[in-house]
Design a protein that fits this description.
Order of helices and strands of chain A: HHHEEHHHHEEH
Largest sheet of chain A: 2 strands, antiparallel
Structural class of chain B: mainly alpha
Helix content of chain A: 25-40%
Oligomer: heterodimer
CATH architecture of the largest domain in chain A: Orthogonal Bundle
Distance between the termini of chain A: 30 Å
CATH topology of the largest domain in chain A: Arc Repressor Mutant, subunit A
Number of helices of chain A: 8
Strand order of the largest sheet of chain A: 1-2
CATH class of the largest domain in chain A: Mainly Alpha
Largest sheet of chain B: 3 strands, antiparallel
Shape of chain A: globular
Radius of gyration of chain B: 41 Å
Largest interface: A-B, 46 and 42 residues
Number of strands of chain B: 5
Number of domains of chain B: 2
Structural class of chain A: alpha+beta
């Protein structure tokens, strides 16, 4: 008798992408008594606990559950590759921060806060990384594109939802109150 | 890129910049300045707000209480420096210089004592912008600090057993079909001298014959085998028309296992994929 937990483990290891509880439920579609979301979640938590002491962990990110190398071992793993991951420029990070915290936001609004024009390269790079996307156009002259963050952004930054982000710094009393929580982009469809 | 922050903040005098640790009080026009050092330093700024924040920070000043005159003077020195070094001076820097000059002049003007309101401080808007920018500058730093896939995090993937199921048969598009017909026609051409006169090649009749062939076969029938080359060009065309009719009626299906592979015909009703 194969344990259900082993099936989940195998699927998560083989998938090469995060799997949601719903994805995992589909594995048991032909089962006369398919497990419910709560049962699967319990299994996943058990699997996560079993990673204790191993080089990898099972975590939940925006797109679902995934196995990943333990964060503290990352720099060891990096030594496998000659090429270092590219550093992100401050301009890119500031632009990303504005899109993430102020989404949906136009380019002009980003420029207003940063005080400099946003280079097209930065927007393109962020789009190529699939961290941002155009979610619509503002009803304003020129119908400028409105940018928002993607689920891949959350996945790549190890976040489950935007509410996991560090909250924006508060300054003196006359600083505006920051609008959090942000629009929910969490993709997990387990109805919890 | 924290070049501005790493510079000593307790600069007693007010150096325009530091070149290899040496404070530079004024910019000597006849002296050689290692341009790289200054350029790297000046290019580290992400815009006028960033430069202003640096100037304020360097003197441990509060954003809320900027000595506009002093900051304006320093700011202009940097802008001047950028110009001397022929750095591409973005228009934004000049706009900020103008804004600072405007604030400065407004602060010099006597204000009626009645509305000594904070709202009336000409610096208010600049302060608001500096705070706003500062907030996102910090947020950017925090984003950078988050663990990131590819830098700190590596999703795990193990090799899955090979998929042994036959791949689903892809659809055939019309271009492939026409190419196959051309091939058959070309071959028919070679057989032209066989010309056999047959009476009334009926498409309907041919449809029945093709359908019989196809449904009798246990497996698929090769597209090319449906044609009798001895019938010549006309016969081939009739068969092709019959095939198209059958296809339209949904009685036969065309399959091509892969690109450039021979097209197969099979009866539509039967599902022998199992």
């Amino acid at each position: 008798m194969i344990e259900r937990k082993s099936i989940l483990e195998a699927a998560l290891l083989a998938a090469g992408r995060p799997l949601t509880i719903r994805d995992l439920q589909r594995l048991f579609a032909e089962d006369p008594a398919p497990p419910d979301a709560a049962a699967l979640r319990a299994d996943l938590e058990a699997l996560a606990a079993e990673c204790e002491g191993r080089g990898y962990e099972l975590v939940e990110v925006a797109s679902g559950w995934r196995y990943q190398v333990r964060k503290e071992l990352g720099h060891w793993v990096l030594r496998l590759w000659e090429e270092k991951p590219p550093r992100l420029s401050r301009a890119l990070l500031e632009t990303l921060a504005l899109i993430v915290y102020r989404q949906p936001i136009t380019r002009a609004e980003i420029e207003q806060v940063r005080g400099v024009s946003v280079s097209s390269n930065i927007i393109r790079t962020l789009e190529e990384l699939e961290w941002i996307r155009v979610v619509g156009h503002k009803e304003a002259p020129g119908r400028p594109a409105l940018y928002a963050s993607t689920r891949k952004f959350l996945d790549d930054f190890n976040l489950r939802s935007l509410s996991d982000l560090p909250s924006l710094a508060e300054f003196t009393e006359d600083a505006e109150v920051v609008q959090l929580p942000l629009p929910e982009v969490r993709g997990d469809a387990e109805g919890s | 890129m924290s070049a501005p922050e790493t510079l000593p903040a307790e600069a007693a005098a007010d150096p325009v910049a530091r070149v290899r640790g040496e404070p530079l009080e004024t910019l000597p026009s006849d002296l050689y300045i290692p341009p790289d050092a200054l350029e790297v330093f000046l290019e580290a700024f992400e815009g006028p707000l960033d430069l202003l924040l640096y100037l304020i920070r360097r003197q441990n000043l509060d954003i809320l209480d900027i000595p506009i005159a002093e900051i304006t003077r320093q700011y202009m020195e940097y802008v001047e420096l950028m110009r001397e070094l022929r750095l591409e001076l973005a228009a934004e820097y000049l706009v900020m210089a103008a804004t600072l000059a405007e604030i400065k002049s407004r602060m010099l003007l006597p204000r009626p004592a009645v509305d000594e309101d904070e709202e009336d401080d000409p610096r208010a808007e600049l302060i608001r912008r500096l705070q706003e920018y500062e907030r996102f500058r910090q947020a950017a730093g925090e984003l950078e600090a988050l663990p990131r896939v590819g830098r700190d995090l590596f999703p795990v993937r193990v090799l899955a057993p090979e998929d042994e199921r036959p791949p689903p048969a892809p659809e055939v598009d019309l271009t492939d079909l026409l190419a196959a017909l051309r091939e058959v026609l070309a071959r028919a051409q070679l057989q032209a001298h066989h010309h056999i006169q047959r009476e009334g090649l009926s498409v309907r009749e041919r449809m029945t014959r093709v359908l019989d062939r196809v449904s009798e076969a246990t497996d698929c029938v090769a597209f090319t085998s449906l044609f009798t080359l001895e019938e010549g060009r006309r016969g081939v065309v009739v068969t092709f028309l019959a095939l198209l009719e059958l296809l339209k009626l949904g009685l036969v299906e065309l399959i091509q296992p892969g690109p450039f592979e021979p097209i197969q015909v099979r009866a539509a009703a039967r599902d022998d994929r199992a």
